[in-house]
Amino acid sequence: MSKLPTVEDVALAAGVSRQTVSNVINSPAIVRESTRERVEQAIADLGYRPHMAARRLRTQRSSTIGIHLDPYAGGISGVVLDRFVHALTERAGERGMRIQLYAARTPTEEIAKMGELSDGGEIDAVVITGTFHGDPRTRWLAERGIPFVAFGRPWGDDDVEAPAHLWVDVDGAAGTRAATEHLLSLAGPRLAFLGWPSGSGTGDDRERGWVEAMAAADASGPRYVCEESVGQARALVGGILAAGPDIDGIVCVSDSLAIGAHLAATEAGRGDFPVVGFDNTPPAEALGISSVEQLPEQVAAGVLELLMGPSGSVIAPRRAEAGAAHVLVTPRLVVR
Amino acid sequence: MSKLPTVEDVALAAGVSRQTVSNVINSPAIVRESTRERVEQAIADLGYRPHMAARRLRTQRSSTIGIHLDPYAGGISGVVLDRFVHALTERAGERGMRIQLYAARTPTEEIAKMGELSDGGEIDAVVITGTFHGDPRTRWLAERGIPFVAFGRPWGDDDVEAPAHLWVDVDGAAGTRAATEHLLSLAGPRLAFLGWPSGSGTGDDRERGWVEAMAAADASGPRYVCEESVGQARALVGGILAAGPDIDGIVCVSDSLAIGAHLAATEAGRGDFPVVGFDNTPPAEALGISSVEQLPEQVAAGVLELLMGPSGSVIAPRRAEAGAAHVLVTPRLVVR
User: Fold this and answer.
1) Dihedral Cα A285, A289, A292, A294, nearest 10 deg
2) Which residues in chain A have Cβ-Cβ distances shorter than 8 Å to B229?
3) What superfamily does domain B64-169+296-330 belong to in CATH?
4) What is the ipTM, given to two decimal places?
């Protein structure tokens, strides 16, 4: 590697002391303007850049946000998180922040990893994803005083008025409501809902949108339940269509279930049977299935706003107080 | 945050000087064994961890590898790269290395970003992806002497005997050969190839596998060309099947084209028409289409081996010399 210019090179070129160069970089207000301009010119001419490790020690800030990457588990649902990491990297870069990845297979491993990175001064904050009831990570982070934002609500608490921590999430009920309203106007009033077994915060939230939109339209339809599996949904919906109940379309809790439903309908010679999914994944796009788009780019923007303020360049998280401590992104229906 | 133990705390607990603690951490060989054991015990008892920024300054190493995340562009092909980043993060973590992401929209932006990170001592090496003919990044990295490995061949040069740089890639021809041999035994000798327009290194490499396997079996079939688009492939194959040429199956250059072909066949009432894709993406899995799996986990292992040796924990790239400077991963056909 070609030798990089040092602070000594800058001092020599500008005809000042090493300390003066350091002052220009760290406390420019105390340096006479003509001197400062000369030093800044030398910095520009030489292409000098302060070593980040030195800056980290001096400022006690790493300007780095840690984020966990789940092990790849197959299936299609990881796409939203991957898009979120992409968007977070882009937006964080615009604010001079770095994104550092870490791997962990369990919450316990993730806690150990976060502790190691935080103790070593390698990260100033973390973003956690996939929050769940009784999540040990959020309690640990709060106790350690490590700034963090969750992509995902603190399910089971009073998320909005007394949020346990800063969070950004997608308004699943609003998404399914939009999907249901679309199918009501397109297909008719007898819309089924194909959901996951009760008890998952995300699934229950999405189902609520269907319940509300159907009630508002004085419509009704059956509710079916299925695991998150294209094959199971295909078999279930195949049986439903063969039995011939009188339904006009199916609102699905996920793209996996919507794809299964669409494939079953196609096999039954009804390729145009109205189905809507959730997550707007590449397979839904490829099959021409309408779906609710989570807008991961807006989630990423919300995370940085909670951590750094609307336009800040250092970590200064908002206090987790009523109303001010969350961002709820309204998803968008993509009609195909 | 609870106050972390410092080197002074360790020195006090072990009854030694600060310098001795530093020696135990950085040059343990020069410390008497009984003293070293006492200091190590104090480090363990207190849970002391050296500040990474200080270690970075001292060692002039960041223990960090940079990798570019492309902006999310939709479609299904990004999945392989995302899986690669997942695997790289896991395996790098096992070797004590960090993965830092950066965003850039053009090769020029990527070069500027790599320069900034390298100048600031923030990364010890980079991994670049999506290499292409005349790629300016590889030349720039070589000139700057920044250790790097490419996921992707230096297309157009003598990649194996005189490689321009270290690289890991997937043997596309071997993948398509396996796919073709499978369809030959399953479906019959008249196999078409559905590929991209000539001129892309990846596409031409994959087509070669079909050519070779067909020649070895004394078989022949037509070659069709299409852009990387589910819709275009669907329309094209729909027309082909309607015209009724005598083909037993289609080997496709990508999952997008295989999905389009499969959908066209399903619409024509031939849902079991043999089709094989490439990349083993979630949509292919969801539709039950056989596909060639790139094994991104092996690519990640290959990248680290070229950068760090078989089991090293510091960047020590192999020299880019004949034969020794690449890892070619043989992909695996996933039959569905």
Assistant:
1) -20
2) none
3) Response regulator (3.40.50.2300)
4) 0.80
